[in-house]
Design a protein that fits this description.
Layout (H helix, E strand, L loop, with lengths): L5 E6 L4 H15 L3 E6 L15 H13 L6 E3 L11 H15 L3 E5 L6 H13 L4 E5 L12 E5 L1 H11 L13 H13 L5 E9 L3
Parallel strand pairs: 1-2, 1-4, 2-3, 4-5
Antiparallel strand pairs: 5-7, 6-7
């Protein structure tokens, strides 16, 4: 971790990044790492009734700022939700552009066996763009039938609390069972127990380069 200075989070939809690795991002920011967050959709097509179409854009800006990510390091795209595969080449080219601009040392991306079609596209194009960089797949239990917990970040309660506080800005997502403080802390306790710690976040080790 001493050699990691720049971290890039690939979030298919606004909020996936915080859900998958928000606690780890809180720890890395605390350690002085520079975090870039790239969201590929603000999901205008699926915003719940009663909210403005750009609600998730507003929410992700608030959430990432609260987490500690600089607004200038937030990169927002707006590909139609559930249709990323139609824009595969464009997404790949945007990732290569980002790679050249910021040269990240570590990339967080969706798990390789994610069930959601948009998550699969971001994983596939992400590993193509960053095949020579260290990549970890984050943990979204509702998006897989199996998850390979091959890497862990030890966390403290304050990191999970920060994760939850950032997710709490997503008013549009509070109906989801996993946007719940008990779930967020419960999962962190489960992952922590796997490594004899109180709290942790788990990751799939896709590629690690020392």
């Amino acid at each position: 971790m001493k050699n990691i200075e720049r971290v890039l989070v690939l979030s298919p939809h606004a909020d996936d990044g915080e859900l998958g690795c928000g606690g780890t991002l809180s720890r890395l920011l605390e350690e002085g790492k520079k975090i870039y967050y790239m969201a590929f959709s603000i999901c205008e097509e699926s915003v719940p009734e009663g909210f403005p179409k750009n609600a998730l854009e507003i929410e992700v800006k608030k959430a990432t700022k609260h987490l500690g990510i600089s607004p200038k390091n937030l990169i927002l795209k707006n590909y139609p939700v559930r249709k990323f595969n139609y824009s595969r080449q464009e997404i790949l080219e945007s990732l290569i552009k980002i790679r050249k601009e910021i040269s990240p040392d570590l990339i967080f991306m969706p798990f390789s066996r994610s069930l959601h079609q948009d998550h699969k596209t971001i994983f596939n194009e992400g590993i193509r763009a960053f095949k020579h960089r260290s990549c970890l797949g984050y943990d979204l239990p509702w998006d897989n039938t199996e998850f390979s917990t091959t890497s862990f970040f030890k966390l403290e309660e304050k990191h999970i609390q920060k994760k939850w506080e950032s997710l709490d800005f997503y008013e549009t997502q509070k109906w989801r069972t996993y946007c719940d403080i008990n779930f967020i802390f419960g999962l962190a306790r489960v992952r922590g127990a796997q490594i004899a710690e109180i709290y942790a976040e788990a990751f799939e080790m896709i590629r690690i380069i020392f």
